[in-house]
Amino acid sequence: MKFGLPKRTPAVIAPAEATSAREQADATLPASIRIAGAWSWRVLAVAAVIALFVYLVITLREIVVPFMIAILLAALLVPLVNSLVRHRWPKWLAVALVEIGLLAVVAGLVILVISQVRSGFPDLQRQSVEAYGNFKQYLLASPLHLTNSDITAYLGQAWAAIQKNSQALVSGAVSFGTTAGHVLAGTLLVLFATLFMLIDGTGIWAWVVRLFPRKARPAIDGSGRAGWVTLTNFVRVQIFVAFVDAIGIGLGAWIIGLFFGGFPLVIPITVAVFLGSFIPVVGALFSGVLAIFIALVYLNPFAALIMLGVVIAVQQIEGHVLQPFIMGTAVRVHPLAVVFTVAAGGFLAGIPGALFAVPVVATLNVMVKFVASGQWRTIPQPNLTQAVRPDPGTRAEKNA
């Protein structure tokens, strides 16, 4: 006969007891730690979803970039098509006229820029070589006592730094257009996507809305319409801002050429400023630097100083007049947020990222605010004022 302690069976904790134990353990933590933990896992979940979305966009950039360009073009062209239809034009004729007109404008700008560059570049190249020789002779005769080997080494270091710093900026454009086939495929995708958006954009959006649960469809539809109105106004206003920047800097270059006996590549500079202005805040500034460089090389430092004053004046007009009073109705985003948004977009996706960053953020900002305000319950088809500035009297908590 064996004696000993009785065997103990493992205790089974009921779910209710386990929940009570967890609640007691949570009660021992300070309130600040509990709140921080609750926020942390939610923030991590949102960040993971955003990171996955950004990864997919970058991986599929050869499809996403043409699609985004097509959306911007459709936001510009849809009002023109609707205007022609209201004036009793057949829709197929209105769509064909608008898209062919767009192709004609783009082809005309390309031909004009190429012809101007071919006629003015040889003279500018000769002046650049001559200016480099004069600057090198000045350095050799200066009190710095530099030699030819020193100048060559410094120029090599400067060029290496430029290549290193510009790699992130141009990576998006290079990766998107490494071959002529990619460029051609992207162009065809843009044209076809724009064409179908002009023909049946409403039907495409209705199909997207039907992908969501039935109860969420009114909110999704209303926020999408609010975002579309905002995007349309943003594109229209951005074209006007780019036009003002281009005319200001191009006219300044032309006037300087009148006083100093010519200014080469005025039209290409104007077109470059116009295209660069679609990247808010920094685009026109970088393209204006090109005009300053040409004035320095082709004319003299005094002309370059005047050109610098013209660029600064145009930027001040844009920053203090156009952006607050005109752009303010299109983009309800603080200028500091715009700068960081452009920088983040350029870092993640190069030039396409910098181009699309602001319209994407502005549109999402309006869509989220429209859903949060609860206006989708009473205003299914908002106009620009209702989309950008939701009425505080129709907030969700007042309708609950």
List the helices and strands and how they pair.
Elements: H1 15-27, H2 31-59, H3 61-86, H4 91-141, H5 148-176, H6 180-209, H7 217-260, H8 266-276, H9 283-299, H10 301-326, H11 335-373, H12 384-388, H13 396-399
Helix pairs in contact: 3-4, 3-6, 3-7, 4-6, 4-8, 5-11, 7-8, 7-9, 7-10, 7-11, 8-9, 9-10
- Residue stretches low in confidence (pLDDT < 50, at least 5 long) are 172-177, 391-400
Helix content: over 70%
Please tell me the overall pLDDT. Answer: 77
Structural class call reads: mainly alpha
Give Rg in angstroms. 29 Å
| Main pleated-sheet profile | none
Give an account of the 3D structure:
- The chain folds into two domains: about 60-160 and about 175-210, no CATH class; about 215-400, no CATH class.
- It has 13 helices and no strands.
- Helix 4 crosses helix 6 (about 180-210).
- It is mainly alpha-helical.
Which terms would index this structure?
mainly alpha, 13 helices, 400 residues
In short:
This protein has 13 helices and no strands. With 400 residues, it is mainly α.
